[in-house]
Amino acid sequence: MKTFTVHLHQRKMPILVPEAFAWGALFFGPIWLLLRGAWIAALIALAVLVLVCTVVPPELRPVLFIGTMVLLGLLGHDLRRAHLGLMRYQLSHVVAARNNDEALYCLLSYRTDLMGLAV
Questions:
Q1: What is the pTM for the complete model shown?
Q2: Domain residues for 13?
Q3: Distance (Å, rounded) from C-alpha 39 to C-alpha 6?
Q4: How many Å apart are CA 85 and CA 34, to the nearest integer?
């Protein structure tokens, strides 16, 4: 079972964010964040990676680059949640399910008022 947080905004479809390691953020970093709509976090992550690649001494660059990418993997979904909060989404529920579709089904069976939004 996976755990998902549910974020709601008026008249918009609910967004479910898994509580897990973000493998896409580990391998693709800022691009993964940008594709998930967390553009502020993507810009900050890109700035950090550029600084690591330009300002840091050459012998430390690989270690700090890999460390930054691992940190993005650990915090990727949390950065998405923070961005949703900035976009005025409210954390409303926590759902345990096998996958995203089942989590949405569980949410809609509990909150029938959201049925019209999820179509």
A1: 0.87
A2: 2-114
A3: 20
A4: 16
